[in-house]
C-alpha cells in the first residue's frame, strides 16, 4: 500500500515536528526538508520513537534557488507541502531585516515556483496572527483588516500570504491554505519532542520552564499596566499538538478537494485569551513549583491583547482545540524536565 507523500519544510522545528507526528499517525509518508539552522537532528529520533517511523530527512536551504531545484527534482508524486521553514525571532528581524526577507520570502518563492513547475498543487502555509497587529475588535476574526506589520518578521508573513494569494488567483489548479497561528505552547505528551529554543528564549513558555528548572534566574513579566483585568498582556495560547492536528485537517481539505476557494485562511487558536499571570498560575499549579518572577517594563512592539474568533476554523475546517491551558503548561514542564534528564 502506498501512502500520500507530504513534504514538510522546517519539519524538525517546533510546530513542524509535532505536525510530522500527526501526519504519520494519519497514514502519510512524510519527507522532511530542513536546513537545521534552528533545529536539531535529534528531533528525527524523537519522531521515530513516537511513531515507529523515521521519516526521510533532507538537509536543504530552501532560500537558495539552485538547492531548492535540486531538492524538488528528487521527488515524484508529492500530494502536498506544508511549509514551516522560516526564521521567527521578531527582535532579530528588526536587527537583520534582509536576512529575514531573504530566508522567509525567498524560500516561499522558491517552493511555490518549483511546485508550479512540477504540478504539485496543494500548499499549507504557516502564517501568524501577527498579520492583525493590535486588532480594533476582539476576538479577531479572519475578516479583520490586516494591519501594517510591526516587524520585518511580521511583514514576511504578510508578504508570503500575498504571494500565495496572487499565485492562487493566477493559477486555478493551485490550492493554498494559510493558517494564522495564535500562540502555540506545550509539547508532545511523550516528552520526546518539544520546543528547543536557541539561546535565551524570547517567548513566554520556554522562559518560564527554563526559569523553573534553574537555567534562568527570573522571569520578567513584560508590562503590568495594560488595560486588562490583571494588568498583564493577553494572548490566545493553544497546545502545539492541537495546532499540529489542524495542519492535517487543512491538508485533507485540499486533498479531498473540499475547499470552496483555492486560497483559504483560518485563525487557529482556542478563542480564549489568557494573561501572562494566568499562564504563570497555571504553570505553578501543574508543576507544583513556585516561579521566580518580577514585574517589568512593557516589551517594545508588544500588543496589549489578542485572541481568536475561532468560528471559521470550527465551522468550515471542522477543527477546534481540545487541550487546556493546564495541559499546555504541564506538557511544557514535562518536556523541560526530559531535556534536563538528557543533558
Ligand atoms: N512575555 C513576558 N516575559 C517574557 C516573554 C514574554 O512577560 O520573558 C510576555 C510578552 O510580553 C507577551 C506574552 O508574554 O505579553 C507572550 O509573549 P511571546 O513572546 O511568547 O509571544 P508573542 O505574542 O509576543 O509572539 C508570538 C510569536 C510571534 C508572533 C506573535 C504574533 O512568538 O512569532 O506571537 O502576535 F509574531
Brief characterization of the structure:
This protein is of the alpha/beta class. 41% of the residues lie in helices and 17% in strands.
Helices and strands in order, then pairings?
Elements: E1 5-9, H1 14-25, E2 29-34, H2 42-51, E3 56-59, H3 65-73, E4 78-83, H4 90-95, H5 97-118, E5 122-128, H6 152-170, E6 175-181, E7 183-185, H7 204-213, E8 219-222, E9 234-235, E10 237-239, H8 240-255, E11 263-268, E12 274-275, H9 276-287, E13 293-296, H10 311-317, H11 325-342
Parallel strand pairs: 1-2, 1-4, 2-3, 4-5, 5-6, 6-11, 7-10, 8-13
Antiparallel strand pairs: 9-12
Helix pairs in contact: 1-2, 1-8, 3-5, 5-6, 7-9, 7-11, 9-11
The chain binds uridine-5'-diphosphate-4-deoxy-4-fluoro-alpha-D-galactose.
Uridine-5'-diphosphate-4-deoxy-4-fluoro-alpha-D-galactose binds at residues 88, 90, 128-130, 154, 183, 202-204, 207, 219-222, 233, 235, 276, 299, 302, 306.
Descriptive overview:
This protein is of the alpha/beta class. It has 2 domains: 5-186 and 238-269 and 313-317, Rossmann fold; 204-234 and 272-307 and 324-338, UDP-galactose 4-epimerase, domain 1. It contains 11 helices and 13 strands. It has helices at 14-25, 42-51, 65-73, 90-95, 97-118, 152-170, 204-213, 240-255, 276-287, 311-317, 325-342; strands at residues 5-9, 29-34, 56-59, 78-83, 122-128, 175-181, 183-185, 219-222, 234-235, 237-239, 263-268, 274-275, 293-296. Strand 2 (29-34), helix 2 (42-51) and strand 3 form a beta-alpha-beta unit. Helix 3 runs parallel beside helix 5 and helix 9 crosses helix 11 (325-342). The radius of gyration is 19 Å and the shape is globular. It starts with a strand and ends with a helix. The mean pLDDT is 96. The chain binds uridine-5'-diphosphate-4-deoxy-4-fluoro-alpha-D-galactose. Uridine-5'-diphosphate-4-deoxy-4-fluoro-alpha-D-galactose binds next to helix 7 and strand 8.
Amino acid at each position: 500500500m502506498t501512502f500520500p507523500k507530504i513534504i514538510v519544510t522546517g519539519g524538525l522545528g517546533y510546530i513542524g515536528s509535532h505536525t510530522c507526528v500527526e501526519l504519520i499517525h494519519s497514514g502519510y509518508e512524510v519527507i522532511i526538508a530542513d536546513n537545521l539552522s534552528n533545529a536539531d537532528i535529534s528531533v528525527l529520533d524523537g519522531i521515530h520513537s513516537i511513531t515507529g517511523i523515521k521519516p526521510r530527512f533532507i538537509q536543504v536551504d530552501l532560500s537558495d534557488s539552485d538547492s531548492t531545484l535540486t531538492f524538488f527534482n528528487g521527488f515524484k508524486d508529492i500530494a502536498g507541502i506544508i511549509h514551516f521553514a522560516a526564521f521567527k525571532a521578531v527582535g532579530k528581524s528588526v536587527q537583520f531585516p534582509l536576512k529575514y526577507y531573504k530566508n522567509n520570502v525567498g524560500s516561499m518563492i522558491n517552493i511555490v515556483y518549483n511546485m508550479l513547475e512540477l504540478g504539485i498543487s496543494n500548499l499549507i502555509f504557516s502564517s501568524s496572527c501577527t498579520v492583525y497587529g493590535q486588532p480594533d475588535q476582539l476576538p479577531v476574526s479572519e475578516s479583520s483588516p490586516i494591519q501594517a506589520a510591526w516587524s520585518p518578521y511580521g511583514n514576511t508573513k504578510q508578504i508570503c500570504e500575498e504571494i500565495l494569494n496572487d499565485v492562487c488567483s493566477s493559477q486555478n489548479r493551485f490550492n493554498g491554505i494559510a493558517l494564522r497561528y495564535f500562540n502555540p505552547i506545550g509539547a508532545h505528551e511523550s516528552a520526546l519532542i518539544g520546543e528547543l529554543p536557541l539561546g535565551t528564549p524570547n517567548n513566554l513558555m520556554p522562559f518560564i520552564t527554563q526559569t523553573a528548572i534553574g537555567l534562568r534566574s527570573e522571569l520578567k513579566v513584560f508590562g503590568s499596566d495594560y488595560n486588562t483585568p490583571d494588568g498583564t498582556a493577553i494572548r490566545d495560547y493553544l497546545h502545539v499538538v492541537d495546532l499540529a492536528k489542524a495542519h492535517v485537517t487543512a491538508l485533507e481539505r485540499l486533498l479531498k478537494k473540499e475547499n470552496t476557494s483555492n486560497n483559504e485562511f483560518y485563525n487557529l487558536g482556542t478563542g480564549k485569551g489568557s494573561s501572562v499571570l494566568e499562564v504563570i498560575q497555571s504553570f505553578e499549579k501543574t508543576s507544583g513549583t513556585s516561579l521566580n518572577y518580577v514585574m517589568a517594563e512593557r516589551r517594545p512592539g508588544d500588543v496589549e491583547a489578542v485572541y481568536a474568533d475561532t468560528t471559521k476554523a470550527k465551522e468550515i475546517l471542522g477543527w477546534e482545540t481540545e487541550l487546556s491551558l493546564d495541559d499546555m503548561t504541564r506538557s511544557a514542564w514535562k518536556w523541560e524536565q526530559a531535556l534536563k534528564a538528557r543533558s
